[in-house]
Amino acid sequence: MAAESVRLKKRTVIAALHNLNLAAAFCDNVIFMKEGKIISEGRVDDVLNEQNIKDVFHVDSRVYFDQYSNSKQVVFRRI
Fold first, then answer.
1. Which are the contacts of 34, defined by CB distance < 8 A and separation ≥ 6?
2. Distance (Å, rounded) from C-alpha 19 to C-alpha 14?
């Protein structure tokens, strides 16, 4: 309900999230940062990918679309 209200009122919400699955579910755009520098920014579908996750978090991952949550999901393992 909150996300719908934000869209209807044409508001912007800025949040710092480290949970990529929550970011994918609730954000339209994301920014990946490492050591204070922007690594990648843009729409979730463009930015949330295995290479960016590896570059920022140093983990192997799989990114896939989950029909139940209707959003991208990330699973990972340490390298």
1. 55, 56
2. 15
Characterise 58 by phi-psi region: left (phi > 0), alpha (psi -120 to 50), beta (else): left
Total Cβ atoms within 10 A of residue 15: 8
Q: Pinpoint the alpha helices (H) of the chain.
A: 2-8, 20-26, 44-47, 50-57
The full length of the chain comes to 79
In 3D space, the residue among 21, 18, 45 whose CA is nearest the CA of residue 32 turns out to be 18
pLDDT in tens, 41-72: 999 999 999 999 999 999 999 999 999 999 99
Q: What is the pTM of this model?
A: 0.80
